[in-house]
Inverse folding.
């Protein structure tokens, strides 16, 4: 029998949740001293018991369902009975992908996969997360509105919690979509957080006051959102045994690069803004919660670029493209020698999806830089690429040194552990943004909603 599928009745609720997280089967079977099945419990039943006041150190036997749907070995050769049993199981658990087969003594013998038994080709691997419930906090934002669409297209059920700093438009077309749910609310409110995580299997936190200038304008709100509320969210997930928690951090935490060595996840952090500091504090707060079960992962993303249903024109590539198209100008400040790692917004979304699918052993307490070694650019290189795509625009380089951020980052770790590779190209993204402006997909590029700092004044 595979590990983490069967536990003895000495196991605690916490042990049971860990077994479920690691097996990916959504349930764990519990046996007595003689290895006889006494019941089954699912991840959602465990979480429900916690909400009802159970302590995760208590025995799992207290919460098992003593009459689970199972098969005996001889049932396997009876196709009519098999179909009836599968129907009964799916009436109880629509996502069920397997059923336990017992030997003649009532002891678990093997796990039988339903699709295989009924001769159906499974579209996804039996253990994949697809179909699970994911909460995306900040899902109406620049990255969120791209990620949520990808998740839905992969069959995840998605709930978004967002206070809608930039309006509902980026996710409005999703409201009627099957598998999508929206809660308008502020993550700084603990009751809102509890409601949002109820019934979820994984949580992604993208919500924040984003960018140095926006944070500088609203320091109190920044600390409340980026640090305190994020810590409360992570604590609430841990309490409720939602152990897959993915946090959006930033390569800005490296701040000023010292020396020539590429920055990896172990490099010293040199934050040069409240934004970066709030992200570091959050990382530390989240990582302090890691235990045998709680398995958060921190994604330190490069500066994003590209088209999104919630467009931002305050990100370096997008800004340069906009001014090139609208004003025929590309302006490079501070000489343009500063290094900046870049990441296309769709690629960033893929990194989150990889984390949802990865085994717990690969994500637990991990910190990954997200980007690609080929997309470490100097600002002047970005400007030259925009110029190539929009040749009529005039390129001006202004000297100065007021931009302290300068870093070349290594992305070897995420590549090694999650096999993460980017698909996006700077050129393609610039042309896509150019198109969206020229074809009036984005009507008023100066609208405040495209600039985080304007909205957070
Ligand atoms: N865009 C980048 O270049 C970049 C780079 C590295 C890291 N990040 C991180 O990625 C995440 C997403 O960034 P983005 O560019 O999509 O930003 P964004 O500003 O477009 O999105 C943030 C979303 O969070 C929501 N939000 C803010 N406060 C909230 C609250 N109290 N309760 C609920 N929702 C709230 C906003 O309404 C918005 O929809 C952020 O955490 C950011 O720090 C972004």
């Amino acid at each position: 029998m595979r590990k983490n599928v069967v536990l003895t009745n000495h196991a605690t609720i916490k042990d049971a949740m860990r077994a479920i997280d690691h097996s990916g089967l959504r349930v764990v079977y519990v046996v007595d001293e003689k290895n006889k099945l006494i019941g089954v419990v699912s991840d959602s039943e465990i979480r429900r018991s916690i909400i009802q006041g159970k302590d995760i150190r208590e025995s799992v036997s207290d919460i098992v369902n003593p009459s689970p749907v199972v098969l005996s070995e001889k049932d396997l050769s009876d196709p009519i009975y098999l179909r009836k049993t599968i129907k009964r199981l799916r009436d109880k658990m629509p996502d069920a992908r397997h059923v336990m087969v017992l030997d003649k003594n009532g002891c678990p013998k093997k796990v039988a996969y339903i699709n295989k038994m009924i001769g159906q080709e499974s579209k996804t691997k039996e253990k994949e997360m697809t179909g699970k419930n994911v909460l995306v906090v900040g899902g109406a934002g620049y990255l969120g509105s791209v990620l949520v669409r990808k998740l839905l297209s992969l069959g995840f059920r998605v709930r978004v919690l967002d206070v809608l700093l930039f309006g509902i438009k980026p996710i409005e077309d999703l409201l009627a979509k099957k598998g999508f749910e929206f809660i308008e609310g502020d993550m700084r409110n603990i009751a809102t957080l509890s409601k949002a995580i109820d019934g979820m299997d994984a949580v992604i936190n993208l919500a924040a006051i984003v960018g140095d200038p926006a944070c500088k304008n609203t320091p109190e709100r920044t600390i409340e959102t980026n640090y305190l509320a994020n810590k409360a969210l992570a604590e609430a997930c841990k309490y409720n045994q939602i152990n897959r928690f993915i946090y959006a951090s930033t390569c800005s935490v490296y701040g000023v690069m010292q020396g020539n060595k590429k920055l990896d996840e172990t490099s010293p952090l040199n934050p040069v803004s409240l934004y970066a500091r709030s992200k570091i504090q959050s990382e530390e707060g989240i990582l302090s919660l890691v235990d045998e079960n709680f398995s958060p992962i921190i994604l330190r993303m490069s500066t994003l670029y590209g088209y999104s249903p919630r467009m931002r024109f305050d990100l370096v590539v997008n800004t340069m493209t906009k001014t090139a198209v609208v004003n025929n100008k590309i302006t490079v400040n501070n000489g343009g020698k500063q290094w900046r790692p870049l990441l296309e917004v769709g690629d960033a979304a893929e990194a989150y999806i990889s984390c949802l699918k990865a085994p717990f052993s690969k994500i637990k307490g991990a910190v990954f830089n997200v980007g690609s070694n080929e997309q470490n650019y100097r600002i002047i290189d970005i400007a030259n690429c925009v110029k190539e795509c929009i040749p009529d625009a005039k390129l001006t380089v202004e000297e100065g040194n007021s931009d302290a951020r300068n870093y070349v980052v290594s992305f070897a770790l995420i590549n090694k552990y999650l096999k993460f590779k980017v698909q996006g190209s700077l050129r393609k993204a610039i042309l896509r943004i150019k198109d969206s402006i020229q074809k009036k997909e984005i009507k008023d590029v100066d609208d405040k909603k495209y600039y985080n700092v304007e909205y957070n004044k």
Observations:
- Residues 6-117 form a domain with the CBS-domain fold (CATH 3.10.580.10).
